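Assemble and predict.
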Amino acid sequence: MVACTKAELRETAGQEGLPAQEKPTEDIIKSAIIKVDDAFVEVLESATAAEKTYTKAQDFNEVIDDLAIVSYERLYPDAGEFEPRTRRDGLHKWYIVKYDSSKSIVKAGDALGAVQGVEKVSYPRKIKMRSLPNDPYFKWQWDLYNDLSLNLTIKYHGSIESSNQGCSVNVVDVWDNYTTGSSDVIVAVVDEGVDLSHPDIASACVPAGSNGSYNFVKNNTKINGGAHGTHVAGTIAAIRNNGVGVAGIAGGDYAAGIPGVKILSCQIFDGDDIASDAGFMRALKWGADHGAVISQNSWGHSYDCDDDGNITAQGLQDAKNDNIDDYEKSGVDYFIKYAGCDNDGNQLPNSPMKGGVVIFASGNDNIEYGWPANYEPIIAVGASGPDWKPTWYTNYGSWVDIAAPGGDLYGSGYGNDADAVGYSRGNIFNLYQTKYDPNEDYQNYGYMGGTSMACPHVSGVAALLVSYFGGVGFTNTELKHLLLDGANSNYVSSKTPIGPAVDALGSFQLGIPPSTIAPNKVTDFTLTAKRRDVSISWTVPADADDSKAAGVRVLFGMRESDVRNSTPKSLASGVTMLDFPTGTASAGDKLNGELGTLSYSTTYYVAVYAYDRSANYSEVSEIKSITTPDNHAPVIKNQPDGIILYGTGAGKNLSVSDIFQDPDGDPLTITSSSVNQSIANVSMQGTSIRIRASKPGLTKVVIVANDGDKSTPCNIPVLVKADAANPAETTPSPITDKLVISTEEDAETYVRIVNSTGRVVYETTQVFSGFNPLTIETAGLAPGRYSVTISYGGKTYTKTIVKI
Amino acid sequence: MRKLYIMFAAGLISLAAAAQNPTSEALPFMQLDYNPSSIAMGSTQVSSAATLPFCEMKLAGGLSYQNYMPQISATQFIGAGLAGRLDKIGYSLSFVHGTGEKVFMEDAGSKYYEPTEMLLNAGLSYAFLDFLAVGVNVKYAKEQPWTNYSIDGIAADVFVAGKVEGIDFAAGVSSLGPKVKSQSSDEFDLPTALTVGAGYRYEISDEHALAIRAKVDSYLSTGLAAGAGVEYCFSGMVSARAGYHYGGDSVLPTFASAGLGVNYSGFTLDAAYLFASDILGGTFALSAGYRF
């Protein structure tokens, strides 16, 4: 029988020669449930029986690494006496796989689904009794949970104009079964300032600062909270289930200790002041540059010429003729392209999504126009009432992408319900900035209505989706797909179209379908070698169900047979694999990549496979070869003369560029050493070589230039003399078996050694110098005192030495 | 002519050896002459207690100073000694201390140090015949070339000396002793030599006298050395001396010397000066003493 041992992969990885990683803790682990075929059952059971981490299935082993899988085990453990029927009904084929939560569910699903033998991938669902948050004003948040208990009837001249039909964003089941939000997700609220001290949202706000929430009206870091901005932010991220005030759509679960999404306040309204010099666009870009992946914008161009709340014929004409300015487009495009990404457009490691979404309110003028919301890349949000119908004020048209509760006035409670306090509960109840109106019964909270209120509902649902599906590989395109294609189309109005109604549960249930058709193979790629850096360029292949390949996997090695016998999922020994994601490029675009720094004078064989987001691989390309050129070692262009230093501490600097050059122009790495550091030491100071004297004597320093492949040493003799006044020197002192006599210059030199009574024990005339000194074997000298006479160049120097 | 040829050949061998790896004896200052009257006559006096039984004085003592080899590396020797005889027994005791020029000692903390040498000499002799005596000197020598290192050694001089019809003579071996070890445990010979010396004093008149002396040393390690000197004495009070020493490859290089001596009522004052030597030129010695 198969043991249902949980394979703790990270703990045993080190034993199998793989890099040991820190084991993720339970709270950062995600799970997937897979159903495997009979052959793969044997593979998994064999591995678990042997208590091995990795299996005989190479493709599954790669997924183990890619997803940082923590464990896999049978969903239905060995049932003992009932194991036969368990297996007969196939329950032994279900495995639960736990992996690092930084990996997106989409990526995990694709990766596991691509493993040969995996028939199905599912995700564990949270199961619990439906529970509503304990926020006391949640009962008035029909926009989030509408059980028809609120009487939201609208009467006009005594006739019922509208009634509560259960409209909401349908988020409660999402909270129960998927997520309540993640603090990894940041939503930029481009609006009035958010009251960062509001007790029901303060902990969700990014603090004000030069790298945080910022006031673009005053151009400083002091956020002045406003009712509108705080209300919008509260709809998205008011702290949920904290027993206070209201619940935000992605406000986490305070009672469970789960923080919700973060709010980055980008203030463009401050009282009657508006961010000047198009500061609202700087504010929008600010979000992308400070971690936000969702830009929430409840503002737009104004067509109310006389500011009386009504659009005149001139205003309507202005709206019709209006267009988004290029500078506005550039800011929006920038956010969509670079949010969550580095300078090169690659997803940042800690970002939940590659690229951003910009969400705008459609406007409250009840017209068919609305800039900049109708700029195509923007998600435009219209407002609906509790009856699902477009509100009387919402701008509309085919350009409106999605509808959300924006509230409607004059509910039945008006004037009759002490709780209503002048506003209908048909509007949206959420945060005000603190002490907004001291006379208000619900200080810090209140009703507001408009597309401004509808828009953050979409932003909130988007934030939930990113919280759950986000991770490495999750894109803004996929978010848009989930958000718009998962919306509820049952209530689309043909007269005043504002798109389908945002439906949180619908979007979550939609999920992301795997890709099933492999991309076309790469038909043209070229290789170039600059020195030993090999570059590859290719044309992005098309993909029948994804429009383009998600990337290419390049296999290369030094033996053609190894490359030919490798597959994208199984590499022969000596074959290296590199992935190059397509990113934002389109099919047919030319892309380039680097195979890295390889060996000189070597032929490499290269094969290319295209892959899609579900790890379906194309056929192999033509196998091409490239030979890197020869490398020439660095050369010494100027051999430095021997260096004479006078006195301890004396030094001399040499320039690397004066000594070495590389025939190939390779950058050189310089190292230095001294043969005898007690005489002279050497150090590098930038491109300068610093030689410093320690004590008298002769040594040499060795400077080595390396071009990354070959090295060339340069030996520089260094003579350290006690002082310039004594050019003739004897070392060491005292002597034992050798006496070294040095001078400054090559010259015929007379040397005589006499003992303490005057006996001449040594006498010679030779040519020597400091760098070619005279060395005398002195082992035969008896211990005692001797005098050395050194004469050259017309000068005579006498030294007393001691032999021990 | 044959003798000259041998001397020339010895010189060649000596020069050839000097250009090879050098060798030397330990504690060479054992063989130095610290007596100015002897130095002035070419260092020809045999310094052995064996000669004491034939001296006229019964007891003598004195102090000496010598600035040795000042042109190359001066050593300042100071000494004190006494010698006497009791009938047929002679005895002597002397002490010499030398201080060399300062040496920069890198491995001693890069400080200068003054090397020192010390020689303690005690002698005893006995005239077993009226004209012949035997004497032994025991010498202890120590050299401290730098502060952290010293060597020492013990040696003996054994001589037979005599005096017959105005001619005094001595023969024996000097500085005979065990080898000295270096820090690396290499062993080195002492400057042992076989020595023969003789002198003759001729009284020209009551006021004038002339003395000659000669000595030959055969060093076991380094070969022959020889010296000859002459002294003129007026009224027994003033003496003028001159001499020449051929050092060859021995511990005491070649030099010429001259000197003066004064003797008055037992007080003596002697001086010597060395010249005609690029090594020992400029060396001078002084002594003062009293003879009973």
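The radius of gyration of chain B is 19 Å.
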